[in-house]
Amino acid sequence: MEIVNNGICLQEKELSDRCATCRSKLVLCVYKYQSKKLKKVVRCKNCQTATQIE
Prior knowledge:
The chain is mainly β.
């Protein structure tokens, strides 16, 4: 399990889209926070950029 910003990564899925910065594949992650909220984040593991999906 991976912990980012006090959230635990529950699920990861590799996407076919590529990062605009480094051209590596993007990963869709679902994070669970202490407030019991789930947040979806698209991130690049190579250059550590991320965007939260509403």
